[in-house]
Write a structure and sequence with these properties.
Largest sheet: 4 strands, antiparallel
Oligomer: single chain
Radius of gyration: 24 Å
Shape: elongated
Number of domains: 2
Structural class: alpha+beta
Distance between the termini: 90 Å
């Protein structure tokens, strides 16, 4: 037996078989969980991922896919190394799309969406509110939460941003004197 054969035997004992019909021990699932966690962390750091910061549809879909893919390798439903390789491919694809969107406004809007103006100079843009599937109550709630005010006259602009949050820009107070 060669040295690599011994390594393979030890690894197989640690992580268990990549066969969903053969159950893994608790120990093997724990070892897989640690490997998947460390591998997932390395993959995300390699991809310069913004997943937990500003989330666009591009980021959210990556999060769902990585979670679903990585979890299957912990319980033995998918092969460990192949799963990590698939996750690297997903992060590279995400990185590629994110890079392309920095060079193309059209592609940026197509992949990440666009903002919708909900209030302009104190006036609600009702067609845009309907387009965003928001009620006036939803909008006023966002004003209270994000601007600590629900006086429309004080709002220069409110937008439904690409990440799903409502941003509010208040008018500047007129200074006396």
């Amino acid at each position: 037996m060669t040295g690599w054969s011994h390594v393979a035997i030890v690894l197989r004992a640690l992580v268990g078989p990549d066969d969903p019909t053969r159950p893994l021990s608790v120990y093997q699932m724990c070892v897989r969980a640690v490997i998947v966690y460390m591998g997932g962390l390395a993959i995300l750091r390699f991809g310069k991922n913004r997943l937990f910061g500003r989330s666009t549809a591009l980021d959210i879909i990556l999060g769902f896919m990585l979670g679903a893919t990585l979890s299957r390798s912990i319980n033995g439903g998918a092969p460990l190394l192949e799963t990590l390789a698939a996750c690297v491919a997903l992060v590279l694809l995400h990185w590629g799309f994110a890079t392309l969107t920095t060079y193309s406004d059209r592609l940026d809007r197509l992949i990440k969406g666009h903002q919708i103006v909900l209030i302009r100079d104190g006036k609600i843009e009702h067609p845009n509110l309907r387009k965003a599937n928001l009620s006036e109550r939803d909008l006023l709630e966002a004003l209270r939460l994000n601007a600590q005010d629900d006086d429309l006259e004080r709002v220069r602009a409110a937008r439904l941003e690409r990440n799903g949050e409502i941003s509010v820009v208040l008018k500047r107070p007129i200074r006396a004197g």
